[in-house]
Amino acid sequence: MTSDLDRARPAADLVERLARPVPSEVASMDAWWRANNYLTIGQIYLLDNPLLREPLTSDHIKPRLLGHWGTSPGLSFIYTPR
């Protein structure tokens, strides 16, 4: 028969792993978060050339911005996969 302590151990292990991510996890999360933020900014500000395959010009920028940066970085971080 398993005790309450045995059942609590997997949760404690998860908390420990989340509290101390390894450097490769941090690097992966950071890269994903930065890419997500880049896409968000592109959607808000750019009309064309989102991958910057040519030098950015004023023609690429939307004449009227719809949306704002606001909570985008925080939301991107919440949805960052681990």
TrEMBL record:
Gene3D superfamilies: 3.40.50.970
Domain Xylulose 5-phosphate/Fructose 6-phosphate phosphoketolase N-terminal: 23-80
InterPro entries (UniProt xref): THDP-binding, Xul5P/Fru6P_PKetolase, Xul5P/Fru6P_PKetolase_N
Name of the protein: Xylulose 5-phosphate/Fructose 6-phosphate phosphoketolase N-terminal domain-containing protein
Organism: Nocardioides flavus (ex Wang et al. 2016)
The organism's taxonomic lineage, starting at the top: Bacteria, Bacillati, Actinomycetota, Actinomycetes, Propionibacteriales
